[in-house]
C-alpha cells in the first residue's frame, strides 16, 4: 500500500498543483483582457474622430492607453511579472493591442514549469451605425461676413466644416449601415416646394397685392428718381440693436368715421452716419411697360460709415434702435423714370390668384398653413396652430391644412410708401400712389432648396453646398419647424423615415445660426406680411414684439422635434448663445464658436457623441 501511495502521490500533486496554478493563470488572463480592452478604448477615445480627415494622431494617445491599462492591471498583481502592453493604429483607424504577463507557478514548479505565459489581444473602434443627420442652417445675409481671425466668410467656413464632418462620419461608418443627410437652409423663408406633393398645396390663395382699376389720371409729375438692385460688396453693418423704449402716443381720430392710431413721437440720438456715392460705370437707357416710362439708369457705388438711429413701434411700445456701418460698401443703380402716359389708379387689397401652376411659376418657397396668435405657449392648441403641428399630413381640398406657394411679385404693402412713410392699413384703398413691393426686397429673399434625408456621396455634398448663398433676414422658427418635418419618423415623410424591422435609426438635428432673431414687419415671409396678414401677430394688440413671437414659437417647435426622439444640437457661430437656444438643445448639446477652429471642435464633439466606441470581436 505504501508503494502504491507513493506511486500515486506525484500524479495527485500534478493534478492539484495544475488546478491551482491554472486557476491563478485564468484569473490573470481575465483581468489582463479587461485591462487590454480598457487601454485600447481609452486610446481610441483620445484619438478622436478628426484623424479620418487630417491624419493627425495626438501625442498622448499611447500614454493615455498605457495609463488605463496600468490602472486595470497593476504591476505584480497575483504575483505576476514582466507585464507588457503595446498598441497599434490600424488602417481603419481602430487601435489594436497586445498584452502579456508571466504568472509564477507553485506546485507545478516541482515538474519544471516555473511560469505560465499569459497573453491576450484586443481592439477598439469608433464607428457609426444607422444614422439620420438633419442640418438646419442659417443662410441669412450676415453669413457672408468673416469672423475675426478667419480667412473665409462664415458660410464658406461652415461649408468646409460640414465637408470634414461628413468625412469623419463616412470614414467611421460600420459595414452594412446607412447614414443619411438632409438640409434646411432658412432665412425669412424656407424653400421646400420641391419636396411637396401636389395635393399638399392649395390651388388658389390670396395675397396682399393690387389690381389695375382701368382708371387713369393726368400725370402731374415729370418723373421720379429712385435706387434699385442693391448689392453688398464689402465692410460690416451691425444688426439693429435696441437702446431704449418708451410708450407710444394714442392719436384720436379727427372724424367719427376714421380710426385712431398709435405713433412714436419721442426723440432719439442724432445720426453720425454718412455716405459717399460715386459712379460705377457707364449709364444706359431702358424702357418700362408698366407704368409706361423711359428709365435712365446709372450704376453707382456707396461707401457708408457711422451709426444710424431709428424708432420701431411694437404695439404700444416704441423701440429706439441703432445700427453701425464700418466701410460698408454697396453697389446699386440710380434710376431716373420719365413717365410716358397718365397715372394708373390702383386698388390695393387682398387679391385671389390661381396658383395651380406654382411649380413652374415660383422658386419653391411657401407660406405656412393655418395658425393663430398664441398667448399661452405652455398650452398650444395644435388643432389651430397647424404650422407647429409638424406631423400633420395635409388633407387634399382643405386649404387650412395645405401649404401656399409664395408669389413675391404680387405683394404690395398698404399704406407704406417707398420712402418708408405711412402705416399698415388692412382696409382696401384706391390711389395712384405706389406702395412698397416688399416681396422683392432683400429681407424677403428665398433661400436655397431644402433637401430630404438621403445617402450622399462627397461629390453630391459639394454640389449641394455650392447652392447655399447668404441673403435674407433671420427667422429661427421656420428653420426649426421644417427641420423637424424632414426628420420626423411619424410625419409627412414617415414612409421614408420610420424605423423598420432590422433597421433602427439614431436621429440628430444640427441647428446653426450666426445671429439673433431679426424680423421685419414689412417682409414677405412664410406667414405673409406680418404687419398686414396678422396670422401669428397683431402689431396693434399683441403684448409681444414680433421677435418675441418668433422666438417663443421656435421654442415650441424645438420641443415638438425632441418629442420625436430627435437629439437637437445647437451651434451659435460668431454670435452668442441665448437661454432659449441652450434650453432647446439641452445640457451639453449647445456650442458657441467664435472662429473656424472652434466651429470644427464643435462639430467634432457632435460627431463623437453620435458615434459608438466599442470593442471589436
Q: Would you mind describing this structure in some detail?
A:
By secondary structure, the chain is α+β, with helices and mostly antiparallel strands. It folds into 3 domains: 13-127, no CATH class; 131-215 and 345-616, von Willebrand factor, type A domain (Rossmann fold); 220-340, no CATH class. Helices cover 24% and strands 33% of the residues. It has helices at 2-47, 51-54, 61-72, 154-171, 358-361, 458-465, 476-487, 494-497, 530-533, 546-562, 579-585, 596-610; strands at residues 81-89, 95-104, 115-127, 131-138, 179-186, 204-217, 224-237, 241-247, 249-251, 261-263, 274-279, 284-288, 293-314, 317-339, 343-354, 366-367, 404-405, 413-417, 429-431, 435-436, 451-454, 506-513, 524-525, 528-529, 567-573, 590-593, 612-615. Helix 4 (154-171) links the parallel strand 4 and strand 5. The model has no long low-confidence stretch (mean pLDDT 89).
